[in-house]
Description:
- By secondary structure, the protein is mostly helical.
- The protein contains 14 helices and no strands.
- α2 packs across α14 and α4 packs across α11 (160-167).
Amino acid sequence: MSDSINTLEPFARVMDRAVARKGSKALLFEMAGEVFTADEIATLPDDRWLAAFTKQIFQSGFVWRVVEQKWPDFEDVFFDFDIEKMLLMPDEMWAEKCKDPRIIRNGKKVMTIKDNAQMIYEVSTEHGSFGQFVANWPSDDIIGLWAYLKKHGARLGGNTGPYALRFMGKDSFLISQDNEAYFRGHKLIEGGISSKKNQTAIQSYFNQWHQETGYSYRQLSRILSFSVGDNFVGIETSD
């Protein structure tokens, strides 16, 4: 696979297919959405990072609509995800939170809030804020940030951490089902999608396209997903 990147097609071809499916380049960029600047990400408070991680954890494998409906109660039950309050809560209070009928009562997922609050606190202590830490992490090694969240956080592996980062505005790609299908279809990867080998390869492909086009990683990722599968006019993508 070391030579596979040499066969990566120019992104202009990907763009042409996506335009044919969605109608226009302007619409593609509108659908791709915006990313925050490093300064904007750096100012996001720690409690919003904990909220984003928690929301994504609860949405994983569950009905997103239900999580959205209950989210105001989550904010209330967990004191707006204030990091200090999360770390000061005694075990008996956590046990009560796990049984609170206002939220989705999944004890294992609830307890990730405490663990991820600890991670955010430690990172913030070292880097000034969790937002500053994320802002400083280069997008040409976003898989390194994914690995950090998986190792130091709770239930932030797979697509959970990456989707939370995307939600918070970090410029990044996603290995969605559509994007995975593209790389497999073009024989650019093989084997498990979560392997370090494949993630490193995919990062290198997006890096090459970023250097070629100047587009953000989010734009590249979204447009790529629009170019494959069932993503024709009026049909949204999984990315």
